[in-house]
Amino acid sequence: MASLDDLTNTFVLSTASSDAVLHEVPKAIDDPSRQRRAHHKSRTGCENCKRRRVRCSKSTPCASCIRRGERCHRPGNNGPIPPAPDQVLPTSKPTDATVNLLHLKLFHHFQTSTCDTLVFPQETWTRVLPLCFEFEFLMNALLCVSARHLAFLNPQNTSYPTSAATHLGRALSQFRSELAQKPTATNADAFIATSVLLQIEVWASTDSVHSSNGVISDRIFPFSSSLKQVFLANVPFLSRQPSVLLPLLARNPADNLVASARVSEETDLQFRNHFGYHRPINNNMLNLPCITRDQQQQPPPQSPEINELHPPGYDSAITRLSLLLSFLPETRHTESVTTDSPSPSHLLSDIARSIFTFPVQCHGPFAVLVERNDPHALLLLYHFYRAVGVLLSGSRYWWALKRAAVLEGGLGGVVGKLD
């Protein structure tokens, strides 16, 4: 009796000759090459391969999990086996993605908004921005200031101060390392821009300002003094490089201010007498930082010996402060210069830059007086920060407003108790 296999033979029609011949092909089971290999389902595959219904190799981790960067887990194992670290690129965690998005936001905000509020023109910062991708310390300093600006605009968002502090720490560490390893190879504009941004951060942050038991701690003066020393030490190397920022540093904003203020010799003597180191501190000296009408009509004489009584650095601080005070609304012979006034915008920018550089340009001995809480030095600082709050009112020069308000109140309370 014929079996089913006997009925499954294959026949082929051959036309090689003139007569068609039908040939019988042997049964497939007689041809080993045509036999179908038996398939045995593996029960030891990993969970990922079972879920995808693909063949799993016997290695652990399996080839499929290594290729896909997944953890390979087999039934009966105590725990998942991580993929080989040298074969799989690490995947970004959600927290990393959030940080990267914040970086982009901070950089964009600086480029479109923050750079217009700083002491250099916006077009100058536009030319400096590409250096951020070459010098990481500059990038972190930039992101720090941008975060500080956003914290000013959005005080309810606590993530911005945290981000500013994080980038500040990185910028300081990287900047210090750069100067220690290769100060002569540092790019001039990257060095100057980072220094300016760090100074902006010190202005904007009031975390280091403390007022207690008659002691004021304002770290901006010792920080500025240290930054100035570092800059002067590197000037011989930086001046040999092409730079966008060095010519701007060479321009003194006081030149325009002196010409616009038209401060007479009498007014200058009156200011010097008002802040004279020989005068005892009293509450009346906390009033308007200007000369009363009686003083204007009869300016008190001042002998050269009075200046000799001033400690080092004090006289130059009076000179710089008197120029700023001459632009206050209550001062004679000048017009008010504020953000909302019709005065030329370039004059306001010169005032802002003169205020910004005041701690840097004050001689080192004056910073020592401030650290020692010298009463007369604190009196000068009180009037300085009061002038800052008046002359830079408005949101454009945001970095100066909070410090001015905090220090004016703190210094006023301390100096008032010295009467």
TrEMBL record:
Q: Give start-end ranges for the coiled-coil region(s).
A: none
Task: Note the InterPro entries from the entry.
Answer: Fun_TF, Sterol_Uptake_Regulator, Zn2-C6_fun-type_DNA-bd_sf, Zn2Cys6_DnaBD
MF-aspect GO terms: DNA binding; DNA-binding transcription activator activity, RNA polymerase II-specific; zinc ion binding
Query: One Pfam annotation, family name?
Result: Zn_clus
Instruction: Tell me the ranges covered by the Zn(2)-C6 fungal-type domain, including all copies.
Output: 45-72
UniProtKB keywords:
DNA-binding, Nucleus, Transcription, Transcription regulation
PROSITE patterns, from UniProt?
ZN2_CY6_FUNGAL_1, ZN2_CY6_FUNGAL_2
The cross-references to PANTHER family, in alphabetical order and at most eight, read: STEROL UPTAKE CONTROL PROTEIN 2
This protein is called: Zn(2)-C6 fungal-type domain-containing protein
Write down the species.
Aspergillus ellipticus CBS 707.79
